[in-house]
Amino acid sequence: PRVLQAFPLPSLPRKQPTVLVVCGPAQNGAIGLVCARHLRIFDYEPTIFYPKRSPDPLYRDFTTQCEKMDIPFLSYLPTEVQLINDAYNAVVDAVLGAEAEVGEGREPCAAILATLKHIRIPIVSLDVPSGWDVESGGSGGISPDVLVSLAAPKECARRFLGRQHFVAGRFLPYDVQKKFELNPPEYPGTECVVAL
User: pLDDT tens across 72-99, in order?
Assistant: First the structure.
C-alpha cells in the first residue's frame, strides 16, 4: 500500500526516514498526530513536537497512541535550525490549519513559525500552510515544498508554489461532495491521496 504517496520526496528514502512532525494545539495538530502514527506504521521514524497539548479527549487519545508506538516527543524545538536540518529529512507542518484565526500569532505558534521559516529541509504542510490566511494565501507564513489538502483544496492553495500538491479526500461522503459542489479527483485503486 502506498498511503504515504503524499511523501514522495527524494530526500525521504527509507534508509533515512526521519521526519519531524510539528503539531499545534487545535485540529491541525491532532491531524499531525495521526500523520505521525501513519508514518510510523510505514517504517518511517517520526518525532513529534507538540508543545501545547489540547485537553480534548480525542486529541489525548491520539497522543497516547503515538506514545504507545514509541514515537518520541521533543520537549523543545531547537531554535538553531541547523540542528533540525541535520537530524531530520523533512518536517510535517501541522501547527495551524484552516481553523486558525488571524490572532494566532500567540506563543508557542509564533516562535515555531519563526523557526520553520528558516528550515532548509523539505516542509510538508497539512491542509493550510501555517501562517497563511485560508482564503487569500501566504502573508508571512512558511513556504512548504509539499501541500496535502484535506477533503478539498482551500482557496489559499491557488498561491501554493511548492513542488507537489496532493489532496486526501476519498473519505468524503457523497452528500457532502454534492452540498459543497466539490468535484473530487479520481482516486486510482486503493489510493487515499492523489497528486493534483
Answer: 999 999 888 999 999 999 999 999 876 6
